[in-house]
Amino acid sequence: MDLDIAGRWALVCGASKGLGRGCAQALVAEGVNLVVNARTEVPLMQAASELRAYGAEWARARDQKHPEVIAVDCDITTPEGRDAVWSAPGGPGKDFDIVLTNAGGPPTGDWRGFSAQDWQRAVNANMLTPIELIRAVVDGMAARGYGRVLNITSSAVKAPIDVLALSNGARSGLTGFIAGLARSGIAARGVTVNNLLPGKFDTDRLNATLVAAAEKTGKTLEEIRRSQTAQIPARRFGTPGEFGAFCAFLCSPLAGYINGQNLLLDGGLYPGTF
User: Fold this and answer.
1) Is the pLDDT of residue 208 over 90?
2) Does 260 have pLDDT greater than 90?
3) Which residue, 99, 49, 97, is CA-closest to 76?
4) Which CATH class is domain 9-199+240-262?
């Protein structure tokens, strides 16, 4: 299916691996120009090289110019990092059509052990940074008549987990902000904002939590994986490719009537009706 987004510009944060990488791959495979961001240079540059190959494949199949892939290794949670993205040579400045915010989750643990600084870091990364990115681009999107903002948050926003206190709090704050923004009138000007709530996807971050669980319980990693997947109606973990495909659809004109939503992708794990 042609999603009709070829030639648009997207900013994808956390694009060197995992769900951010899956989203970047799905977008470039639709002919979207990318500015990809992550903190660590080597894996980001490797990802960018592979993304260019996907873009070249799209271009060859259609006899089109290949999409641009610009990599900016920086900490997007800092003003300096955001400035580096806006000023990336060859990029669109702040004139993005698509913005995918994505920051790694804060540490897990008993909330009693978290300091004020821990809370401030979590709120900055998982609430304030997405808001700053949106502030920079949303009015331009509305002026041009097209925009898609997607935030990768967490299924814990819908079903909080006790050891994820920092994430529960910070991401819930972002969720409330997005709900208000979505109803501010920007959708009438072609701009939608939505949140993607991933459940258990087969990423490095999930594997690290499974390894930690295995070490804590004395069980093997395979036993932990079987136990975890048995709880999911789909009986498996999701893949970054599946997540990316849904992201690309939401970035397209086909999804123009989806706005202000918290979209849960968890294989049916969440047990509630609403």
Assistant:
1) no
2) yes
3) 99
4) alpha beta
**Residue pointed to by tokens 């967490």:** 154
What is this structure's pTM?
Answer: 0.95
**Token pair recorded at residue 32:** 């979207």
Domain locations along the chain = 9-199+240-262, 201-237
